[in-house]
């Protein structure tokens, strides 16, 4: 075969005349181009590190400062070195000239660095002010305007992805008194008087006795570490969990809902993989613009670092995150076989049609899986400890280690799924529920759940992502996914036949089958993990609602925050569904601070409960609207507090971790952290609006994503606001719970949204 021949760099034969050495020039050329690519990448990484390290300064600014300083000295006939530099130069005429040049450069450099540090610290101080969040929506005060101008002045020009990392403030530690007060306020609607008084007593005892001691250690950590929460959150919430990460931790992102660019599986994979690799190139070069609120306020970009070339590695007691600086291949799973596919040839990234060519070769491969290979990935779907022990026993040497390294060190994983998933207008409910479950867990052995993310391309060309959660939160993978969906049908496009544009490569080496030698003992562990995973997957009750009765456009006419409107509707729907209120989790981000991740908004409040009861009882519309406004204002205030580091749950979590390190038991903290979140919610934000023309093409945007239920008897709800007229809800629960039914809850959500909108009587106002 041609590709097999080209894989050999040289060959030799022994003849009577000696050794005949034959070099393969093509292979040597590929080695040269590969090395050149690696050195270019290292240089770019070094250059970006320097540019980020001196930001908001720049090489141009350095030249301006140094030249200006030296010109000033020359004009005033000053010696910038004060006669102390280069005393060892020979006594020749150029000594004074060189002395002034060197002294001017050194002092000018010091002045430049001083200016940078001043700008950076001033910017950090400016970004620590959050008064702009308290302004009414649509209005900007003069103080906020002046503040925004100052932020722009001190932010420098043309920032790269990581430029603001050293200028972001640290996450503040709230006082124990404030956190306890806000906690008691959040649980008041969920407790009767007797239980509330008991909890109030526990909180006061904690606030007076153990709390201040734990707080001292937490303050010490906040001064020393970049973020007092993130490392403990990553370790104890994610990496130390010993249960399956499939369903319980991993989440998914969906394709377009109503657009089908091509039905050719290999072609869709070709464009998507190429778009992802282009994104990785921009990420490596730090060319992705940092996300800026109001086009002014930077957000932390630290989570992007582990997006590619990363994998979660199982351990007996705790997992670890493995990240490679560079990876030139991906791994592809198809019908029980694993393939390694190189993404570069001739010193360049493969083009979409060439990637399609590689996918076609994999789809055409009729070889059977090796013993134990087909369901190997079930190890990543089951309990973590058996997987860790199996990894150490069966995958630490030989061909198994080489094959596992190929997966874990790949840029990312791809599954060419042999099922068809798509939104079907004739059967919308069943088709979308099947689609969601396939992305969330599939067959439990056809996704490598440990990988930072898996691209899943179905047989009919529909696609999606499954992402591991420990390395980053959903908005980070959402940023990548928006880039892919924006490039795929519009910028890259397809031919009339549905193939990627371009031509196949005549000499492109084919994919490599990974080789395994999996003994019977390991196959038993695989089978055991698969049983655990299948039991978990079968219990998931998924339901998706494309809510198109109205959207953000009409909600804004009600002069209400869309997020607050939806959260209040969820409370009304839950009360109608279960006849009671519950502890509710809404994810908020803390990326206004360095290495910030998430905080909890406890959106079941006294004000929201009062409004819900008014909808159940026979209250007047005026009274209901008054209570709705109070509930929405309360929700918005709580969201602001969470975003600005004044939340409840991350502070209490860290206090609990400190108490465990000190060997102290706190009845208050233990009870707080054992309360189940029976309603867990999250909004998937659309972050790059400039990539999509939602007016002309509202269908060209992701339909969002979802996650599994957090509590056995609760609901998980993710929603995305698409344009002005569509909101997609992703609902999950467990079949095994008699209290939950995702489809019933979906019906209640739809009715709650309509009932709240009816209060505003927009139809009558329009008439």
From TrEMBL:
Gene Ontology terms for molecular function: carnitine O-palmitoyltransferase activity
Membrane topology, from the record: Multi-pass membrane protein
Top EC class for this record: transferase
Domain Carnitine O-palmitoyltransferase N-terminal positions: 1-47
Catalytic activity annotation: (R)-carnitine + hexadecanoyl-CoA = O-hexadecanoyl-(R)-carnitine + CoA
Highest taxon of the lineage: Eukaryota
Residue ranges occupied by any Choline/carnitine acyltransferase domain in the UniProt entry: 171-751
One GO cellular component, as annotated: mitochondrial outer membrane
UniProt keyword list: Acyltransferase, Fatty acid metabolism, Lipid metabolism, Membrane, Mitochondrion, Transferase, Transmembrane, Transmembrane helix, Transport
EC number: 2.3.1.21
Pathway listed: Lipid metabolism; fatty acid beta-oxidation
Chief site of localization: mitochondrion
Cited PROSITE patterns: ACYLTRANSF_C_2
Entry's transmembrane regions: 50-72, 97-119
Active site feature: 469 (proton acceptor)
Protein localization: Mitochondrion outer membrane
Keyword Cell wall biogenesis/degradation: no
Pfam family, one: CPT_N
SUPFAM superfamilies the record matches: CoA-dependent acyltransferases (SSF52777)
GO BP terms: carnitine metabolic process; fatty acid beta-oxidation
Family classification: Belongs to the carnitine/choline acetyltransferase family.
Protein name, per record: carnitine O-palmitoyltransferase
Recorded name of the encoding gene: CPT1A
